[in-house]
Design brief:
Elements: H1 9-32, H2 34-42, H3 48-51, H4 65-70, E1 89-94, E2 104-108, H5 109-125, E3 133-136, H6 146-155, E4 158-161, H7 167-177, E5 181-184, H8 186-198, E6 210-213, H9 222-232, E7 235-242, E8 246-252, E9 259-261, E10 267-272, E11 279-280, E12 287-294, E13 305-314, E14 326-332, E15 337-339, E16 342-344, H10 346-354, E17 360-366, E18 374-375, E19 379-385, H11 393-407, E20 411-416
Parallel strand pairs: 3-4, 3-5, 5-6, 6-7, 15-18, 19-20
Antiparallel strand pairs: 1-2, 7-8, 8-9, 9-14, 10-11, 10-12, 12-13, 13-14, 15-16, 17-19
Helix pairs in contact: 5-6, 8-9, 10-11
Bound molecules: zinc ion.
Zinc ion (ZN) is lined by residues 253, 255, 260, 318, 320, 322.
GO molecular function, one term: ligase activity
Pfam family, one: AMP-binding
InterPro entries: AMP-bd_C_sf (IPR045851), AMP-dep_Lig_C (IPR028154), AMP-dep_synth/lig_dom (IPR000873), ANL_N_sf (IPR042099)
């Protein structure tokens, strides 16, 4: 599969540079990674030369998160994919995984510098620059999001970290320090809007005119984005990365038409069909799962790493002049439910319900009856009403119809009063498994 059908000379140049970096990365892995030497040999690849270049990448096997986890033991606490000596490692992050032992993500000095560069491109696209004052609620701690803090400093942004879990402290910072930018999850931006309404605080009149969201897909859902923008009187843009590959790999510009790829030269991305594993050609409107390959990584480079992030790609020109592709996240494979053969992403359900407008708060929960990806219809969906709104059969019927028309899924709608579903200063859980058998 050649990407050289692009006529644009600069893209061809970029492809040639990426191809050269990729071949060097493969040779490095062959020499330094027991994990990949074995894995490539098992896939029938006899030498680095045999693996070829970027145009042959689809011949290589995928790398799954579970394989990395399984390669850990007492003598290899990071995993057998560690390709650099520990004496070269300058930082070790952890993943916020829900299961038991954390996974570790090591970085060398050059890896860290490259991540900061990628993050600067991503947040630079969103308009972060010297002169902006940004209040953030990231509890970066042990997590890779910590690298963004280095990027903010290097961009010259006045960064005001207030951490998560203290809305009073955050709103005090907004009122006293008058930041122009708020950085948080989309769920928290919405929660702050409700908090302000309850206390009669006019956040639309606040100094905040940009909201940079990350950490979950909601920032790209039109209904949720519109709610946040209206409440805050601010423009919402989003960013997306993935711990094992890089933070902030994608960043949306002021034209708000998806997140620009910010990893060029450091990371190669592909789209695949998540069911068959087949390559999906890079073209405008293409949909698939993102698969990433490091091009210049040293500590623990990964080949064809499956992200589980499903995206829709745009490749047309953007008025900002940035080259390359932009994406919108459609959902995470891990959240996917299949109802009578139809794929249903919980975030898509939230978007359809949110577009109903004034009658609903925008919060939903899916309560499956079976503990399985596959669900029998109708899918139980709890919809929270807007403040002061009463349950209404006509509204429930309208929501049921919209979900059937737009997502081809039959649902059973339960309406609950405003404030019933949990609010969060982090990511919303859209699937509540408590009633599943
Ligand atoms: Zn743009």
């Amino acid at each position: 599969m050649s990407r050289l059908r692009y006529s644009d000379a600069s893209l061809e140049g970029a492809h040639a540079a990426s191809d050269a970096a990729y071949r060097t990365q493969l040779a490095y892995l062959w020499d330094h990674s027991e994990f990949y030497r074995k894995k490539l040999a098992a896939a029938g690849i006899s030498s680095v030369e045999d693996a070829g270049g970027l145009d042959d990448i689809a011949r290589l096997p995928f790398t799954e998160k579970d394989e990395l986890r399984a390669s850990r033991d007492e003598t290899h606490p990071i995993g057998r994919h560690l390709a650099a000596p520990m004496s070269d490692i300058v930082r070790v992050y952890s993943t916020s995984g829900t299961t038991g032992t954390p996974s570790y993500i090591p970085l060398t000095k050059s890896d860290l510098a490259n991540w900061v560069e990628i993050s600067m491109r991503s947040y630079g696209a969103s308009g972060l620059a010297q002169g902006e004052r940004m209040v953030t609620t990231y509890n970066a701690g042990p997590f890779v999001a910590g690298v963004t803090l280095d990027a903010f400093a290097k961009l010259g942004v006045c960064h005001i970290p207030v951490g998560a879990g203290n809305t009073e402290r955050l709103m005090a910072a907004v009122q006293l320090l008058k930041p122009t930018v708020l950085g948080c999850t989309p769920s928290y931006a919405l929660h702050l809007a409700e908090w302000a309404v309850e206390r009669g605080v006019d956040i639309a009149a606040s100094s905040v005119n940009k909201i940079l969201v990350a950490g979950e897909p909601g920032g790209g859902e039109p209904a949720m984005r519109q709610r946040i923008e209206k409440a805050w009187g601010a423009r919402v843009t989003e960013a997306m990365g993935i711990g094992d590959i890089s933070v902030s790999l994608w960043g949306e510009c002021v034209h708000q038409d998806g997140m620009h790829f910010s990893g060029a030269g450091f990371v190669h991305f592909e789209l695949i069909d998540p069911d068959s594993g087949e390559t999906v050609p890079i073209s405008d409107g293409a949909e698939g799962e993102l698969v990433y390959t490091h091009l210049k990584h040293a500590a623990a480079p990964l080949l064809r790493f499956r992200s589980r992030d499903r995206v829709r790609l745009s490749t047309g020109a953007c008025p900002c002049g940035r080259d390359g592709s932009r994406v919108r996240c459609v959902g995470r494979t891990d959240d996917l439910l299949i109802v009578r053969g139809v794929n249903v992403f919980p975030s898509a359900v939230r978007d359809v319900v949110g577009k109903i407008g004034n009658g609903v708060s925008g919060a939903i929960a899916i309560r499956p009856t079976a503990r399985s990806v596959k669900q029998a219809p109708p899918l139980p969906v709890v919809v929270e009403l807007a403040q002061g709104a009463e349950p209404d059969d006509a509204l429930a019927g309208l929501i049921r119809k919209r979900l059937r028309d737009e997502l081809l899924v039959s649902t059973d709608i339960t309406m609950v009063p405003f404030g019933t579903l949990p609010r969060t200063d982090y990511k919303s859980k859209l699937v509540d498994w408590s009633e599943a058998e």
